[in-house]
Amino acid sequence: MDTELMPIAGAVDPKVTPRKPATPRADGKRSLLGLSRDEVRAALIEVGIPEKQARMRMQQVWHWIYHRGALEIGDFANISKDTRDLLDRHFVVGRPEVVTAQVSTDGTRKWLLRFEDGEEAECVFIPDADRGTLCVSSQVGCTLNCRFCFTGTMKLVRNLTPAEIVGQVMLARDALGEWPSAEEGRMLTNIVMMGMGEPLYNFDNVRDALAIVMDGEGLGLSKRRITLSTSGVVPMMARAGDEIGVNLAVSLHAVTKEIRDEIVPINKKYGIEELLAACAAYPGASNARRITFEYVMLKDKNDRDEDAYELVRLIRKYKLPAKVNLIPFNPWPGSIYETSTGERVNAFSNIIFEAGISAPIRRPRGRDIMAACGQLKSSSEKITRAELDRRATEKEASWVD
Ligand code: SAH
Ligand code: SF4
Predict the structure, then answer these.
(1) Active site annotation includes 373
(2) How are beta strands 109-114 and 120-127 bridged, if at all?
(3) Second label for 261, Cα 20 to 30 Å away, from 13, 59, 109, 221?
């Protein structure tokens, strides 16, 4: 097959499933969290802050929110009482509400968060010896319906706003006691957009939220410490590289059309070859910044030696600066797959390593609190297989441009 970028059928901008907008707060106040500097400045002028002061006030607001972790406008100590009162009448800092906080025996923490309109999403902190990684959600539910993923069984309820995405990071910092924001010795050092949802189907909000996370005056995390994972929304990948610029992870999971169509159904729209061509063209990918291919190990489904050899062939064919992350399947109530045996996973990993490509096996974290990859789900509904099939059909229909 030709290695050039193939034309993509249909319109270039994927149509997102119709969704409910985030509802405004009952008290009519606006959250300052998640607003860019320009948006804060404009919002301040709108409520009567003199234009001449607006830039300075904006910097103060950002400092109190992202450097000091202030929860209330009343805490903005170097702003006069009159100005604070004015701000207080129109704004809140804004944090998602924590419904439950759980800690795994391995130290992983999971928070179930509730937003203004009552919708919920989960967010997970994974501590390691040399780093601490926060796994952030981008949607309530997911636009897609990968068959091995618990989130994929949920309806897509809505996209998260920039405030709700940044809010997850702020909340983790609150819980870890990481204010004021210090450069050295932080526990939360890395962010992965690998929670609930497909981030590239919520492109603008994810981009705007990560801009604040990466801003030196915002949360100050380097783009090298942030990874965005997509299941393969090909038309948005170049923009992700250009406009967000973080590390890319791709949920490949299978090397044949037949199997990938089955387990990652968006493959029926954007196939493997298109996806790999988009990876080869990903802005910023290099040997120093490799693309991670995630590969969930499903017993007797995608875990044969031939699959590993084919994976190596494909990575070479597209000359991809790649590493492979092998993820033992994490089961959930009602899942139809089994985890590959440890022996199988090792053999698969060795084949890839022997070809000179790094292929570590991801150690499952937080399984006891359902916090591991693919186990996140914010509603406890019990659904029948027929309802699952109905949802899958409905979701797939919504991807048609
Ligand atoms: N929606 C994005 C990011 C979230 S999921 C994406 O799909 O890439 C993070 C990773 O966990 C993805 O590679 C996903 O395919 C994988 N995953 C989903 N369900 C899983 C499960 N049950 N066991 C192991 N990994 C799973
Ligand atoms: Fe959505 Fe990712 Fe789960 Fe697929 S694996 S259903 S894209 S969250």
Answers:
(1) yes
(2) antiparallel
(3) 13
